[in-house]
Amino acid sequence: MRLFRPLAGVLACLTLLSAAHAAHAADAPTDPLRLVPAQADFFLEVKQPRRLLSGGPAADLIAAARALPPLQEAYDSTTARRLYQLLAYLEKELGAPWPELLDRLASGGAVVAGRLGQDAAPALLVVQGGDEALAKKFFALALTVLEQELARQESKEHVERRTYRDCEGASVGKDLHLAVAGSALLVSNKEEALKLALDLHYDGPEKSLARADKVVAAGKLLPPGPLARLWVNLDVAHQSPQGKDLFTSPRNDATVTVLIGGILDVVGRAPYVAAGLYEEKNGFLMTVRLPAGYEGASADLAVHAPPPAGPGALPPLRPKGVLFSTSFTLDLGKFWEERAKLFSAQNAKSFEEFDQRSAPFLVGARLSQLLTQAGARHRLVAANRAPVGYKTKPGQNVPASAFVTEMRKPDEFAKSIDAILRGAALLAGTQLKLKLVEETYAGHKVVGYRFPEDAKVPQDTDNLRFNFSPCFVRVGNQMAFCSTLEFAREIVDLLEKEAKEPPAKASRAATRTRLFSAGAAEALRAAEDQLVSQFVLSQAVTLPEAREQLKTILGLVRRLGTLDAETVYEAKQLRYDFRLSLGQ
Question: What dihedral do alpha carbons 527, 532, 533, 539 form, nearest 10°?
Fold first, then answer.
């Protein structure tokens, strides 16, 4: 609605103000959670607005990104100019530059809170300052701006000034309510929610979210000193009909159990989830934590998490030009061994019947045999590679990839897989005329297939098939399935080197993932011609300008460094850590 635009502008100015230097107001800032009613189901709190919005270690990177034409256009837009004009007006009327205004208006941070599971659920914004006189002056100025804008728009809505327990307030229609309580500014979509917050201001924080047991426990679960933190009460999800289906084990949906059964087991037992964002020397850490782990777990967790006393995921593979590498635990054998606990009676019976019929399709083996022969630790990796092995070049390069799985019974599993894949290739060969290629590399037998270059495939107009020569190779107790024969050789070298090195310290992580910005930049560079053409057509720039823009983008992407993600299950906790380490 247009009547909310002036308010949005005022709040946006407050957000811009929060990019200033650290607060040094005379009055100590107060926790804004003290004004959030305990009935709230979630809150997002920005504890250190300056450090968060200034970018911290990423400040130079953000500044460099602003030079890109699309962002320049955004900064030069009419909306942005009006926002800067409003900011200048506020500075003039309040008699101080915006860094100082921030120190006094939002020194205690800000919090957004609300209820879940309802239409038009109550929501509340609290901006906590340290200067009561300035807060009242800002509030009065904001109302004046709002009245002028409504008049200019000839809106039927108007600002209705009110007082509640000696607090100045105002309403615009039914869905916008504002007040100033001491040095705190409050905004809500429900009048009742605003009054509850004002009651806390006068009566004390005993019935506020700041004193709620779950919120206090979440504060202890997270590391100290976050830039921002999020808290969500999971009771709403647990009590919903959909939640009861998801969090009850065994559940009717077997696919959900296979994919995310372990996570659902923990979420179903945890009373809340908490997350925090932290600044580090060369980047940022975001951690998500739930107060539930191995203790009291169902069979679902044993499939997706390493055993409490056993090793976790293997180190991710790092070939040259790596884009993405992940390592995870998934005990496939438990899907068969614990089927009565994991699946409903009907699904378990269907699983058993399929297993009995699977031998003809699996060249004599049965699905249950393959699952129990396979191991619990797996790795997936993708890397930039120019297609080789073919004279015909594809219209677009596809990164090489490999899936490496540990085997519990290497001889039996390798024998079964060899027969299955050869049979599948034989059937596919009738359509694609695949050519079998067998070679020995570093003492290991590599079995692969190449596409004939003299055969026409109408469906593949861009010759994408010539990015692939699918193959598999066994290295000790690990089986690697690779997209190209050439990449398989490199994977063999990595596995051989890994086997000869002293064992690394065992990880407790269930998943370990790393994304590499250098690899992403190289992938973009490989598509240079297509990207430059797109810039020329979409932005109406010259060819040299487009190439210079791409060069800037590649530099920015490289500077993103690496993003690491790790999942760790502990006795009473599940922890997800995401760490961005910026490059130079």
Answer: 140
Q: Which H/E stretch holds residue 172?
A: strand 167-172
Instruction: List C-alpha distances in Å: 213 to 113, 210, 269, 468.
Output: 17, 9, 17, 56
CA distance 524 to 552: 12
Tokens of 115: 């209820």
Burial of 357 (0-12, 13-18, 19+ CB in 10 A): exposed
Could you give the CA distance from residue 337 to residue 352 in angstroms, rounded to a whole number? Answer: 11
CA distances from 23 to 18, 26, 128, 194 (A): 10, 9, 12, 27
Find tokens 């009566």 and name the residue: 203
Tell me whether residue 544 is exposed, middle or buried, using C-beta atoms within 10 angstroms of its C-beta: 0 to 12, 13 to 18, 19 or more: exposed
Q: Please name which of 513, 515, 511, 514 lies closest in space to residue 568, comparing C-alpha atoms.
A: 511
The residues pairing with 444 across neighbouring beta strands, listed in sequence order, are 441
Q: Which two tokens stand for residue 88?
A: 């200048």
In 467-579, which residue ranges form alpha helices assigned H by DSSP? 485-500, 517-526, 528-539, 543-558
Q: Which helix (H) or strand (E) holds 11?
A: helix 5-17
Sign, CA torsion 421/426/428/429: positive
> Residue 448 burial by CB count (10 A; 0-12/13-18/19+): exposed, middle or buried?
buried
Position 426, amino acid? L
**Mean pLDDT per 10-residue interval, the chain, length 584 residues:** 44 45 39 95 87 78 82 79 82 81 84 86 93 92 89 88 93 94 95 96 94 96 95 94 89 92 95 96 95 94 90 94 96 94 94 90 86 95 89 90 95 89 72 84 94 86 92 95 96 95 83 95 87 87 89 91 96 96 86
H or E element in which residue 260 lies: helix 254-269
Candidates 222, 218, 215; CA nearest to 276 is 222
Contacting residues for 219 by C-beta, under 8 A, at least 6 apart: none
Give the integer Cα–Cα distance in Å for 471 and 483.
7
State how far the Cα of 130 lies from the Cα of 84, in Å rounded to an integer.
24
d(CA 122, CA 110): 17
DSSP letter at 289 equals E
Q: What is the pTM of this model?
A: 0.88
The number of residues in the chain equals: 584
Tokens matching residue 170: 């105002």
Q: Alpha-carbon torsion 66, 68, 74, 78, what sign?
A: positive
Pairing of strands 272-280, 184-188: unpaired
